[in-house]
Amino acid sequence: MLSDKAPYIVTIVVAGLTWAATHLADRLLSTPIVKYSVQRIATKDSQTIYLTFKNITRDKTFKQLQLILTAPSDGVITTGAVIPVQPASEGDQPYQVAGRTFAFTFPEFQPGWQIEISADYTGSKEPSLRLSSPDQTVYAIKPSIETIIVEYHIQILAALAIFWIVALLVIWVIAARRKPVVRYD
Questions:
Q1: CA 105, CA 107: separation in Å to the nearest integer?
Q2: Are 4 and 180 in contact (CB under 8 A)?
Q3: Going by fewer Cβ within 10 Å, which terminus of the chain is more open, N or C?
């Protein structure tokens, strides 16, 4: 009796997972998210922080996105660099290093663009990071399940659809191989 209902149960479970993934992805896709990662390299003479920023949204362009790195109170930022990953552009405005602060404004940060920043600093702790835009809210998030869902939501939905089709085919083949039970009453 359960084997007759198995395709329906699998379909309902896969449909529920697909609906949940789609709903979650829609919510996250409507959020202005910039994924960033931090890597710190320390040597005897200096410390360097490498930041990678990626606009993982598919339809949001950030205008005048301002990044500020501030060294701890016992340190300074000595040098910095902005490295756009093609096709990204850093624009015409140079970055500014002044004492404890490294500031840079991206005139435009298109979907899919990635920019890397490096800054040499002194002090007991890593510089603090602030990211802002005058036009809209920006959520700067380190790599997590949220960023994976936003960045790869199409692939996730395609994988769920393929899983659903394969599960239905497997159940159909198993059901076709079973011999019907003949009952003589």
A1: 6
A2: no
A3: C
* Distance between CA atoms of residues 114 and 152, nearest Å: 16
Would you call 112 helix, strand, or coil by DSSP? Answer: coil
Q: CA 10, CA 73: separation in Å to the nearest integer?
A: 58
pLDDT in tens, 137-183: 888 889 998 888 888 878 887 887 898 788 888 878 887 777 666 67
DSSP string, the chain: -HHHHHHHHHHHHHHHHHHHHHHHHHHHHTS-EEEEEEEEEE-SS-EEEEEEEEE--SS--EEEEEEEEE--TT--EEEEEEEEETT----SPPPEEETTEEEEEEEEE-TT-EEEEEEEE-SSSPPEEEEE-SSS--EEE-SSHHHHHHHTHHHHHHHHHHHHHHHHHHHHHHHHHSPPPP---
130-143 residue pLDDT tens: 888 888 888 888 99
